[in-house]
Amino acid sequence: MTPATKTHPLTRRERRARILLFAQFVPIFAVLVILFGGALVMAVLQSLGFAPWFGVNTFPTLDYFAALWGSATFWTSLGLTLYYATVSTFLALVLGTLLALALVKTFRGKTFYKYLYKLPLMIPYTVGIALAVIMLGNGGMLSRLAAFFGVIDDPGQFLQILKTHYGWGIIAVYIWKQTPFITLAVYAVLLGIGRETEEAAAILGAGRRTIFFRVTLPQILPGIVSSTLICFAFNIGAFEAPFILGGGFPDTLPVVAWRYFNDSDYTLQLRGMATVVSIGIVSGVILFAYLAVYRTFERRMGRN
After folding, report:
1. Sign of the C-alpha dihedral computed for residues 256, 278, 63 and 48 taken in this order
2. What number does CATH give the domain 72-300?
3. What is the pLDDT of residues 216-242, one digit of tens each?
């Protein structure tokens, strides 16, 4: 048997170092607990009927959720919200993974492209929305180029990309902004794992497709899961792009909540809070299920 190790009491200097380390995290914890935690608690209370400043105090009641969920428009808006979030996240994942795999290889001008693909990360979403209007709208640059080259007779005949419930403009903005983010996450993982395993599989006769799905993909899954979680959570709660580029009624849930908040009837703000809480519930359930599936896969792979 090995002798038990003796634990020595902390010295004064070590205690001070730990107290100083804890004190450095206090501002962060304060912001999370007071600002975001307080806002979350108030949102839940208002969605349950607590708003005495509006002359409403029926807490606790589920009437606002019942009125919201009992409307067919809510479920249509929920479907649109999930559609935009899922499609854009998936397409950004495919493009980002392909770009990350390309960046691992050596080619001419690689240093330039490593900086170029990160450019959208430094540009706000509102700028991307403005670019979408300028480029993709009827009367925009693409429609005028199509008319100039004789593809169409008039810019007004150009394919309607914006202001439709297909959400092509919304999805385009999300992909343009989030593909570099996913690329950065996956590329960092690829740099960390190296290429020895792929080279060994190639020597044993495995093809490119087999190497990707059996060797590379399981190794880069942590980067894929973390980046897509962030992108999907943002997309499901995003307001600007669906509001400006969407097809109007029925809107996505964030836009529906905004309309409730701006209604002349102040009591409808409680239904708006119920909409916000519903967004949180839906996104939380989906993200939890996503993580649960990923953890199950990790256990099957023997990684805890």
Report:
1. negative
2. 1.10.3720.10
3. 888 888 889 999 999 999 999 989 899
